[in-house]
Amino acid sequence: MSGKDLGFGGKLANITPNKDDAPRNPDAKVDEIGDRHGFVPREPIQKLTRRKPSAPSANLNIRPPDTSFNRFLQFCEKNRMSYPRL
């Protein structure tokens, strides 16, 4: 420290943190009490998906000329494939 006397004497050196942890209430009990007092949960809503992810994916956004895009669509229709499968 700076060595200045701030008027606390040795009082600060005698302060120690509590060693006992406060007892924890179960989450269900806390939620019940919150519901009674009108609080609403703020946990994020889990997004439901129909497909199971098979592998990591990346986004691809291109703006091809109309002729290239039309050929691509024709290829997809001819081979009965969706865009992600290509």
Task: Please explain how this structure is put together.
- By secondary structure, the protein is mainly α.
- It has two helices and no strands.
Gist of the model:
The chain has 86 residues and is mainly alpha-helical.
Average predicted local confidence, pLDDT: 80
Instruction: Give the strand tally.
Output: 0
Largest sheet: none
Overall SS class? mainly alpha
Range of strand content: under 5%
Q: Helical proportion?
A: 25-40%
How large, in whole angstroms, is the Cα Rg? 31 Å
Q: What does the overall shape look like?
A: elongated
Model regions low in confidence, pLDDT < 50 over at least 5 residues? none
Helical run tally: 2
Descriptive tags:
elongated, mainly alpha, single chain, 0% strand, 86 residues, 27% helix
